[in-house]
Amino acid sequence: MVDTVVFIVAAAICLTGALGVILARNPVHSALMLVMTLFGIAVQFVAQEAHFLAAVQVIVYAGAIVVLFLFVIMLLGVDRAQNLELSVLPVQKWAALVFAGGSCAVLALLVIVVKEPVTGAEAMGGSATGDENVRLLARSLFSDYVYAFELTSLLLVIAVIGAVVLARKPKNMSDVVTEEGSEA
Amino acid sequence: MEITTGWYLVLGALLFVIGGTGLLIRRNPLVMLMCVELMLNGVNLSFVAFARQLDDIGGQTVVFFVLVVAAAEVVVGLGLVVAILRRQPGTTADDLSALKG
Questions:
Q1: Does A1-81 carry CATH code 2.170.16.10?
Q2: Fewest Cβ atoms nearer than 10 Å: which of A89, A175, B2, B15?
Q3: CB contact A62 to B (< 8 Å)
């Protein structure tokens, strides 16, 4: 009973936040709605006994990624309302409608037809529940997936270098801006 | 009513669809990046649901990697957005057709 209530409340929070992200006219509101969705997902992780991932979700997503989004929004000063009706490519709006409607139709069909959504053998690696969660995750990460883990460190280094190179201000930035401004 | 794994999968799929729809209807590159995060989170939820149902920690390990890749993606994506918007203030995704063949 408690599980049901937790799921319904957290799912409502997730979906409200997700709709808020795509419908809010102000990018700052979108970012705050994204935080709401991420917290709802963290609750779902806890409900499924993925405690470590719930903590990481809050720390990394809500604590780092969304703050980065907000920094960029404030830095660039693009926090003005966007007119949702203004669309340069009207066909894309129809594509979005077809995508959303088609996906929901397929989803409803699957919910009606499929009785057993999860197929496949249960793992022999042991239970992922309880206090063993962090220990099992660490053992999996540093044994089966250790090469992938090392590669992610390389990926993060590349991302940091790329961000520094991209965001660095060119020395002749004023010339570039004035040239483009005169063209426009 | 008992909450089965299917409910979590439906919620994950709905988040994915909402994110994809937002990616198509929004013009602001920052909001489009947020929609990508929504889609990734929908998939993460499915992975965790499968990991619990099949009693396999591998699903949670994959979610860990998705988190790392999402962080790297946001860092590079926001770097690009900053670089582009500094050159052309107030631009939208539709204006970025410089590489059009």
A1: no
A2: B2
A3: no
